[in-house]
Amino acid sequence: xxxxxxxxxxxxxxxxxxxxxxxxxxxxxxxxxxxxxxxxxxxxxxxxxxxxxxxxxxxxxxxxxxxxxxxxxxxxxxxxxxxxxxxxxxxxxxxxxxxxxxxxxxxxxxxxxxxxxxxxxxxxxxxxxxxxxxxxxxxxxxxxxxxxxxxxxxxxxxxxxxxxxxxxxxxxxxxxxxxxxxxxxxxxxxxxxxxxxxxxxxxxxxxxxxxxxxxxxxxxxxxxxxxxxxxxxxxxxxxxxxxxxxxxxxxxxxxxxxxxxxxxxxxxxxxxxxxxxxxxxxxxxxxxxxxxxxxxxxxxxxxx
Length: 304
Hints:
Elements: E1 3-6, H1 17-20, H2 22-27, H3 33-49, H4 53-67, H5 72-87, H6 93-104, E2 108-116, H7 117-127, E3 131-139, E4 145-151, H8 156-169, E5 177-180, H9 186-190, E6 194-198, H10 202-211, E7 214-216, H11 224-227, H12 249-258, H13 266-287
Parallel strand pairs: 1-2, 1-5, 2-3, 5-6, 6-7
Antiparallel strand pairs: 3-4
Helix pairs in contact: 3-12, 5-7
């Protein structure tokens, strides 16, 4: 049996799924504007300097501290109510066509993502794929997040999970396919016989050219409901693990558009005040009635 393994963010959908949930998390009070600014800074670091193991570890620990104590049921409701509206506009048409093609060829299809399973599992169900591999958080006896992770679906751990599934399902990885955009998914791509890079970052694009791997560009978004029958969201054990810290993109734009105008600086207030005073003085000068000019007195001349 063969299979196809798809990364989620920027491979099946056009942006980070966690970033897309910024506005709902903000509206529900899970995050604030300051947190979104910090998240934006992290996103900029990843974009320009890459996401190596140390950066991802620091980022993950910071995000987990934020989610500690969150109520699972409330998060479950938020994700369930917003999943379709958030994800639907950003699904790649090309990815859906590939998923359909692999299913028609008799291959099992998997979504493999570092995003939390509260997003990945329901979305995998909507796409009609066979199974999802995603990050799982730890929940305490009161149903709250502990700030710890039971399984982090990242880097080599993705490949380990793929091998476990292959052994369980009798999948021939040497004949299978994997799709990803990031160099951090190199172990996942190397685990199969047909690696394909999609919208690759700089390092992955360079490596793919060196190894002769197929490179694809996905550009066309399509509403999910037009391509996939959309059942009611399944009730799953949802957890928003890393979602908070990377909710910068959409949430920050939303905040930027709705933010109050900044207070003027001291110099700006002084300049505006000077302009008002100047206009007032000028207007008063124009309204003052000046006396009519009299003829100049002639100085009497001296008689000779």
